[in-house]
Amino acid sequence: MKNRIAFRFTYLLGFILMAALLGSAFFLQTYKGMSPCPLCLLQRMMMVALGAIFFVGAIVRLKKWGNLGLGFLGLLAGAGGVLLAGRQVW
After folding, report:
1. Residue 15: DSSP 8-state
2. Under 8 Å CB-to-CB from 77, ≥6 apart: which residues?
3. Total-model pTM
4. pLDDT at residue 21 above 60?
């Protein structure tokens, strides 16, 4: 029981972090006039996907296989974001 609560809490922290990052990007885009490039938009899509995965993990009570599956989906979304960021830097 305690382990499940710890998993859900970390998912909640991840969701809050993604929401804060996307909120700051939206603020810069809207009020500071900074328009994002296409690769930045793709990275934001990956962040939205990762935030959605974190949100599902925080809301739904999952068993062992559910946590593993959700973690794998999070790994795929995170790896996609890292690949896009690497492409942008290159």
Report:
1. H
2. 46, 49, 50, 53
3. 0.83
4. yes
